[in-house]
Write a structure and sequence with these properties.
two-stranded antiparallel sheet; alpha+beta; 1 helix; elongated
């Protein structure tokens, strides 16, 4: 029962993260962001947003200056 609850909670978190992510355009991996953009989504479902001037590293779901 605990496992079922954990899976349901993860699914909800991912859907919320994806809904938030749809508000931003996708970053181009390996290029500098020209505006705030979505670099990826973490395993917990949270969006990774790069700010203007940062570089998106999609395979690591990270932004660097």
């Amino acid at each position: 029962m605990l496992r079922t609850f954990a899976v349901a909670l993860l699914a909800i978190a991912m859907s919320v993260g994806l809904a938030q992510a749809k508000e931003h355009k996708r970053c181009i991996v390996g290029q500098q962001a020209t505006a705030t953009c979505l670099c990826g989504v973490t395993l917990s479902g949270r969006p990774v947003l790069c700010q203007k001037g940062q570089w998106c590293h999609g395979q690591w779901r990270a932004c660097t200056p």
